[in-house]
Design goal:
Length: 978
């Protein structure tokens, strides 16, 4: 089950051999060595990814090497239709920088997106907007210690816009416009990003990395850089960094999409074929090796931070060719970790000295092979460290049972089989990302069938003795280090070292054999009957009504072969409590599912669902509670039985409730540690006038939580209210009508209670001067926001869509002025929220993280933008640039079941839901400049506006304004005054 936050569901990269296994486990490793590329070229072998490997080749990919050394990989993929995904990976990251260049790789990434020889400064975003590209999601970039990757997902591709996009992107990478003006502007943006990320968490991360990777570049090469090095950056110094590392031999271009791979290859040759680097290709820096002479223990004292431990076993990184044997080793290492993680979680569920503990083996940035245990102690950190060390000691002392091994391998194989069934539905963007990741971590890719075949052979070799040997390998190292983060000193480094050196006894936390099967589940009742069926107009779906009042919406389709998505909506969600009544809505996300079902607790449910696609996730909507799952046809009957049993036969185990309470209290001091933390906790409550349904619980409410109170709140909500079941997916081989009647149709008729809160949600009271909230973080951090109430409900969906366009235009202008021009913010946000479960409660929110000195500037810019939108209609180009990407996002999403399930929630009881879902594209296409101005005039009125600023403790708005004046005075003096 994936409901437990301490045990994340297994996820594997689709086309990578280990993947993570990869997303969870493997940090970037290494690109293919240059000598291998040379070997491939000399041999005339275009399959450069597979040089020296016996991994079964994925024949869908076509590879090539241009005469200048640039490598490429291309393939056809029609998911979503009409999209082409382009990735350009440069083999340069933050560990390629000198001390004086720290942050340059990341700064250069920013500069590259501003303009080039083909694009005037700042125009790149607008050009791609006209192609339907959303900045930040469809076009983006990322810098890591070992690579810089540029991303472009181009929707509704035509030969013309694909050619133009390839030309523009190639020009940006080959010859970005690196002027002093551009460097100054993007330096401000990066400085804002650095400021916004600063605080205790960053200090802890930096100190931890420096300790764990002592003597290595990785310990001192965060991609964001430093204030000192960035402050000295010039067009000449950044340009020199570009010329040194940006060269064709260090580039890999990946294109996946709805087109001919031969066309993709020709475009790569056209726009990259004449690229030449200056001078010789420099060798990679020496990243260093773990220093065994460095201290083994570190205490980090950070007030208001919870206790935390990191225990790391650090080995030198070894470069390996990706072979079948290498894949075997990686899978076995993953299984060994899974075995220990299950034991650690089993102990936590039973009541341990820690809240959460997990182990994770990583190959980190061509620098180290690390197995790290992350531990959140309850109070006694020494006991928590000893407990985790004891579980590890047992893992390297005795082999696991074959049953334990089978439990973990069942989950892996079930996932790989699901991926095989859904291979044709794999998005092109994900395939492109997987290829880039494979290059970076020195791996190949294979087909889903090849993945399954290899794993089955590997699984057969995973004997208890083999797993014991693997465990001993990953839990031993020449260097072992520990970091304790604590709000007050626990005795310094010496005390931490003593705890690390203390003898430890092996702890047997292996799971006892559990016999759980669905035959143990008490009867849900006599199967019901179907009383009515009808097609949903305009959609390939049918409405089914059962004799007990349950309704279902079913779509039998092959969009995702072998996959069935289920969403059960019950009760009335946020409307089940009054706006001013205390509630325990905040407890449901984890504890409700984890508290068990019928005769089964968490361990029994884990055993029951092992190796099967049976899940249960919980969420709260405005007008319903939701249980959701991603299943498969063979598991659908038991999936629905389990969900129905959660409503009819809930179990009320106390341990998950107590664990939730302790978890909230453990992290409580983080709630105001940064402006962002304050926003995440309080924003929705503020916007609704402190409505209790969205206001965050205070410490007293958390401390008062008991299993009895939890049950008293949730039991009637599970037992009452309407039920709507959505089933979308591959249903050809199952009798879903019979399954429905025997599961949800067998439940007793449910009482329908009138929601006490009605359908009204208030908005924050109007203010003329921003309200003030405080954080306890860095003095240079602040946030500001302003919002206007809009509306809600299902009666006017067209205005809801037009408000999304208005918000996009507002956001585009705010981005240009606050970030691109002034560098005052890294990521300003404008959001339109239009709830459908309430008739009110909508808003248009404008916000940004800032330096205190820029708060007045933010409010001035937001005020100017709002006034201009009210006074003047937007231009045709601006409307198209912002409405187009929204329409493209909708068009792409509409090819999947998730999209339609979301839009059709409540459709079996309210026909307006279907009408609104079917009209989205037409509504967006119909938005005019007059509509945008009408809505701006209707809603963006100063007399209803609410604003709030989050400042460092002790600071006032006047203080922040004074900072701005002081900064302006210093700037004027620096440039001679104006």
């Amino acid at each position: 089950m994936s409901s437990d936050p301490a045990r994340a569901p297994l996820r594997f990269a689709r086309s990578m051999l280990v993947g993570a296994l990869a997303a969870l486990l493997l940090a970037p490793l290494a690109a293919r060595a240059q000598h291998e590329v040379a070997t491939a070229k000399q041999a005339g072998n275009s399959d450069w990814l597979y040089v020296g490997s016996d991994i079964p080749r994925d024949t869908a990919w076509q590879f090539g090497i241009l005469p200048n050394g640039l490598r490429y990989a291309v393939r056809n993929n029609g998911v979503p239709p009409g999209q082409v995904s382009i990735r350009v990976r440069m083999d340069v990251g933050s560990m390629f920088e000198t001390d004086d260049e720290r942050g340059y790789a990341h700064l250069l990434e920013h500069l590259t997106f501003r303009g080039s020889e083909h694009i005037p400064d700042g125009e790149a975003k607008r050009i791609w907007q006209r192609f339907g590209v959303t900045f930040g999601s469809d076009s983006n970039a990322q810098t890591t210690p070992t690579q810089t990757v540029y991303q472009l997902d181009l929707p509704s591709v035509t030969p013309a816009n694909l050619d133009e996009s390839m030309k523009l992107l190639a020009g940006m990478i080959r010859a970005p416009r690196i002027s002093e003006l551009a460097v100054a502007a993007e330096r401000g943006v990066v400085m804002a990003e650095l400021r916004e990320s600063d605080g205790p968490q960053k200090r802890i991360a930096d100190a931890t990395n420096a300790h764990l990777f002592a003597g290595q570049l990785l310990g001192d090469r965060s991609p964001i850089g430093t204030t000192a090095s960035l402050g000295k950056a010039t067009a000449a110094s950044v340009g020199a960094f570009h010329d040194r590392w940006y060269r064709p031999e260090r580039a890999v271009v990946v294109i996946v999409g709805d087109g001919d791979p031969a066309t993709f290859a020709r475009l790569i040759a056209r726009y990259y074929g004449d690229w030449k680097g200056e001078g010789t290709n420099p060798p990679d820096p020496d990243f260093g090796k773990p220093d065994p002479a460095a201290p083994a223990a570190l205490e980090i004292v950070e007030p208001n931070q919870p206790l935390a431990l990191t225990l790391a076993m650090v080995r030198p990184w070894k470069r390996r060719i990706d072979t079948v044997e290498n894949t075997r080793r990686l899978y076995l290492e993953f299984i060994a970790q899974a075995l220990v993680n299950r034991r650690l979680e089993n102990r936590a569920r039973a009541g341990a000295s820690y809240l959460v503990a997990t182990v994770e083996q990583q190959y980190v940035s061509r620098s180290a092979d690390v197995t790290a245990a992350s531990i959140v102690p309850l109070s006694d950190w020494k006991a928590a460290l000893a407990d985790v060390r004891g579980v590890i000691a047992d893992a390297v002392r005795r082999p696991p049972s074959q049953a334990d091994i089978d439990r973990e391998t069942n989950e892996i194989e079930a996932f790989l089989l699901k991926e095989l069934e859904n291979a044709r539905n794999e998005p092109g963007a994900r395939l492109a990302d997987d290829m880039v990741r494979a290059v970076d971590i020195n791996e190949t890719v294979t087909s889903p069938q090849g993945q399954v075949d290899m794993f089955r052979a590997i699984r057969a070799s995973a004997t208890p003795q083999v797993m014991l040997d693997i465990s001993r390998a990953i839990f031993s190292a020449p260097v072992t280090r520990v970091v304790l983060t604590t709000p007050t000193s626990a005795g310094g480094n010496g005390a931490v070292l003593a705890a690390l050196k203390a003898p430890v006894a092996a702890r047997d936390e292996r799971l006892a054999a559990v016999e759980a099967d669905f035959g143990q589940l008490p009867s849900l009742g006599k199967p019901g009957s179907i009383v009515a069926t009808a097609p949903l107009p305009g959609l390939r779906a049918e409405r089914i009504e059962l004799s007990n009042g349950v309704t279902a919406l079913v779509s039998n389709n092959k969009i995702e072969p072998g996959k069935v998505r289920v969403n059960v909506r019950f009760g009335t969600g946020n409307r089940s409590v009054a706006a001013d009544a205390p509630n325990l809505l905040w407890t449901g996300d984890y504890a409700l599912v984890a508290s068990g079902i019928g005769p089964w607790g968490q361990n029994e449910i884990d055993q029951l669902t092992n190796g099967r696609q049976i899940q249960m996730n919980f969420a709260i909507d405005d007008d319903a509670f939701e249980l959701s799952a991603e299943s498969r046809p063979a598991d659908l009957a038991d999936q629905l039985r389990l969900m129905a049993a959660k409503l009819a036969l809930p179990r009320w185990d106390a341990a998950p409730v107590e664990r939730l309470r302790i978890g909230y209290l453990t992290g409580y001091e983080l709630n105001d540690a940064t402006p962002n933390a304050v926003l995440e906790r309080h924003l929705r409550g503020w916007l609704t006038g402190n409505d209790a349904r969205w206001a965050a619980p205070d410490r007293a409410a958390i401390e008062a939580l008991t299993p009895a109170a939890f049950r008293a709140f949730w039991e009637p909500r599970l037992a009452s209210g309407p039920i709507e079941v959505q089933i979308f997916g591959d249903l050809e081989t199952v009798d879903y009508r019979k399954i429905l009647t025997e599961s949800f149709g067998a439940l007793a008729p449910r009482a329908i209670l009138a929601p006490p809160g009605g359908q009204r949600v208030d908005f924050a009271p109007h203010v003329t001067v921003p309200e003030i909230a405080y954080h306890r973080g860095e003095q240079g951090q602040a946030a500001a926001m302003t919002a206007w109430p809009t509306g809600g409900g299902r009666t006017n969906p067209r205005d809801a869509r037009a408000l999304e366009v208005l918000a996009a235009i507002f956001n585009d202008r705010l981005f240009d002025r606050l970030r691109a021009e002034q560098g005052a913010s890294y990521g300003p946000v404008v959001d339109s929220h239009w709830p459908t479960g309430f008739d009110t409660g909508g808003y248009l929110l404008v916000g940004s993280l800032l330096a205190p000195k820029d708060i007045d500037r933010f409010y001035g810019i937001a005020r100017d933008i709002a006034a201009d939108l009210v006074a003047r209609p937007v231009s045709a180009d601006e409307l198209a640039r912002n409405a187009g990407p929204i329409r493209e996002q909708v068009a792409r999403a509409s090819t999947g079941n998730v999209y339609w399930m979301f839009l059709l929630e409540g459709a079996t009881r309210d026909p307006r839901v279907t009408a609104a879902a079917l009209s989205i594209q037409d509504d967006l296409a119909a938005v005019t400049a007059a509509d945008v101005q009408r809505l701006a005039r209707q809603y963006l009125t100063p007399d209803r506006q609410w604003s709030l600023a989050i400042l460092p403790e002790g600071m006032t708005l006047a203080d922040a304004s004074a900072l701005n004046g002081a900064m302006s005075t210093r700037l004027d003096a620096a440039v001679g005054g104006r």
